[in-house]
Amino acid sequence: MKQVIFLCIAVILLSGCFRHDRAQAIAVLKDFSDEKGAQEKAAKAEIKKFNALSADVRGAKLSLGSSVEEISSLYGAPTLIKDINEPPGSKILIFIEPFKYFSGKRVRLYFDKNNKLIKYEYTPH
Questions:
Q1: What is the pLDDT of residues 57-107, one digit of tens each?
Q2: Domain segments of the chain: what residues?
Q3: What mean pLDDT comes out for the span 37-63?
Q4: pTM of the predicted model, to two decimals?
């Protein structure tokens, strides 16, 4: 009989240990963990695209005359787009090694006013 009473008291006391707000906190932590996995996957994809671009630039495999759209579809969005005036309407797409913005490698792609690739360079900072 004492065991039954003790068991009932234990169940009543321990039933308050798992509350709904704690379940929500656990769900938030799980979502955060899932999101972190997605972020890591996206980061790896960005690194892979940059490495492909830098290899193509170093190997002189980029086709002069390629459009901004063609380059972006192959290698992703640039870190920075800089408009320049020589010649008028030109721009530079600057790709910086992901997560190494101050010390990483850089690729500069120069486009004319018609958004066609006219020159490229690699800097191995």
A1: 999 999 999 999 999 999 999 999 999 877 788 999 999 999 888 889 999
A2: 21-123
A3: 92
A4: 0.70
φ/ψ (deg, to 5) at 103: -125, 5
Report d(CA 88, CA 16) in Å as an integer. Answer: 71
Q: How far apart are CA 92 and CA 96, in angstroms?
A: 13
Topology of domain 21-123 in CATH is: Beta-lactamase Inhibitory Protein; Chain:B, domain 1 (3.30.1450)
The answer for residues whose C-beta is within 8 angstroms of residue 56's C-beta and 6 or more apart is: 62
Residues contacting residue 96 through CB under 8 Å, at least 6 positions apart: 79, 80, 104, 105, 106
Q: What are phi and psi of 24, to 5 degrees?
A: -65, -40
